Amino acid sequence: MSKSASLPHVDAPTPVAHQDSILAAARAVLGAERAGLDALEDALNGEFVTAVQWVLAVRGRVIISGMGKSGHVGNKIAATLASTGTPSHFVHPAEASHGDLGMITPDDLCILISNSGETRELADMVAYTRRFAIRMIAITKNRGSSLGKQADLILQLPDVPEACTIGMAPTTSTTCTLALGDAIAIAAMNERDFDASSFSHYHPGGKLGAHLTQVAALMHSGPGLPRVAPEAVMGDVLVEMTAKGLGIALVVDDQDHLKGIITDGDLRRNLVGLMDHKAIDIASRKPTTIGPKELAGKAIGVMNEREITVLAVVDENDIVQGVLHMHDCLRAGII
């Protein structure tokens, strides 16, 4: 093995005394940030309600901006708002001063973040919102700051110490800002009745997107469904099950109402005298079903709970819409 490809040096284990100090420091940080969040929660008032109402009423987008660590947090807040039904994006304040102010319109709502309220890089954005009468919310600790004095509404951060030992690194303040952004996004989401189905429109990719796919998008339907009449002889049932290859037969009446399901297990349990029966005689009369608009993730949960691999999909009137097999969910990447 060449020297450049050698394994990295592994230091000796940290002494127990140092381990204790490391854990103590970590717990102190978490305690300080927890105290900050408690103070933030206690301070929530009508200004927060107004902020959420403005978010709900905005005709354009919610523009978030901040510099440094506030900017990193602002990026995340914008992403959370966008993914929960509120059109939003982050505008970097330095880029705004070099042309990106054109991204902001009078129909937008600006949320500017500065712990001190004296961030110089935000000055041009503040001036722009004032010039064009664009609503501006300030997230700051200092209500009397330059930013606070210009804002239409202030969401004040709690006056609590930063968690770092020198009291300077943004820690508690950024945690509170992030949590406040989450609170705005989720409060607005709840007011919009933004449900899991709505969420799926903004999260089509990856495993999360697969779980949020509706059953109707994965199920088998149409002529490929194995349908038999209640009075069908078992010979016909076996032919239909074999031809359609889903391991079940749907027992339906003339209007396609589901009357029962025959599975491979039902066939095995009735091997003696099987061919003397009619379809309805061996069918499970109260099969587990699911609606076409339910999420695929829920369907997986139902199948796992009932220890089955296939579900009949029916509408609110028990009319057959399709069949969902565990393999369909596997192919979609849900499991």
Task: Explain what the structure shows.
There is one protein chain. The chain is α/β, with parallel strands linked by helices. It has 2 domains: 16-194, Rossmann fold; 215-331, Roll (CBS-domain), CATH 3.10.580.10. It is built from 14 helices and 11 strands. A 5-stranded parallel β-sheet has the order 2-1-3-4-5, with helices on both faces. A 3-stranded mixed β-sheet has the order 6-7-8. It has a 3-stranded mixed β-sheet with strand order 9-10-11. Helix 1 (16-43) crosses helix 7 and helix 2 (46-57) packs across helix 7. The mean pLDDT is 89.
Offer a concise description of the structure.
The protein has 335 residues and is an alpha/beta fold. The protein is built from 14 helices and eleven strands. The chain folds into two domains: 16-194, Glucose-6-phosphate isomerase like protein, domain 1 (Rossmann fold, 3-Layer(aba) Sandwich), CATH 3.40.50; 215-331, CBS-domain.
- CATH fold-type name of the largest domain: Rossmann fold
The succession of helices and strands, N to C, reads HHEHEHEHEHEHHHEHEEHHEHEEH
Number of strands: 11
Assembly category: single chain
Structural class: alpha/beta
Helix content: 40-55%
Total number of helices: 14
Mean pLDDT: 89
State the CATH class of the largest domain: Alpha Beta
Distance between the termini: 40 Å
Largest sheet: 5 strands, parallel
Q: What number of domains?
A: 2
CATH homologous superfamily grouping of the largest domain = Glucose-6-phosphate isomerase like protein, domain 1
| Envelope shape | elongated
Q: Unreliable runs, pLDDT <50, ≥5 residues?
A: none
- Our estimate of the beta-strand percent is 5-15%
Q: Rg to the nearest angstrom?
A: 30 Å
CATH architecture of the largest domain: 3-Layer(aba) Sandwich
